[in-house]
Specification:
- The mean pLDDT is about 95.
- The protein is globular.
- The chain has helices spanning about 45-55, 120-129, and strands at about 5-10, 15-20, 30, 35, 65-75, 80-85, 100-105.
- It is an alpha+beta fold.
Length: about 130
């Protein structure tokens, strides 16, 4: 399964994480925003769509910088997740589909419970930011 994710970074160097809602797999865990890449869709297009749907913000492909990726074997599927960095968007970030959102300093991300695929990305973000 191909899922694209993004680390939105604000002017203070904090990263946005979103809490998975009740009723979904891994509910309550904190993750980087994003979602499934649909057939015929690029990861960048998927992120632009997902950021609008989930957070009410708009961005462009030129504002999405490929950063790293995660490859994780879950019990019923294999996840490949490219992670992009984004520092420019339009609109005010608000939770539309998640329980909550939170801006967190990169060195504090490891304190949050996260899905197994997201965890390895935290150290890379901490070292980069």
């Amino acid at each position: 399964m191909l899922v694209a994710a993004v680390a939105l970074v604000d002017g203070d160097g904090r990263v946005l994480v979103a809490q998975r809602p009740e009723g979904k797999a891994m509910a309550g865990l904190w993750e980087f925003p994003g979602g499934k890449v649909e057939p015929g869709e690029t990861p960048e297009a998927a992120l632009i769509r997902e950021l609008h749907e989930e957070l009410g913000i708009d961005t462009k492909a030129a504002c999405l910088a490929p950063f790293t990726f995660a490859s994780h074997e879950y019990e019923t599927f294999h996840l490949l997740m490219p992670l992009y960095l984004c520092r420019r968007w339009q609109g005010d970030v608000r939770a539309r589909e998640h329980q909550a959102i939170r801006w967190v300093r990169a060195n504090r991300l490891s304190e949050l419970p996260m899905p197994p695929a997201d965890r390895p990305l935290v150290a890379m973000l901490r070292d980069f930011l």
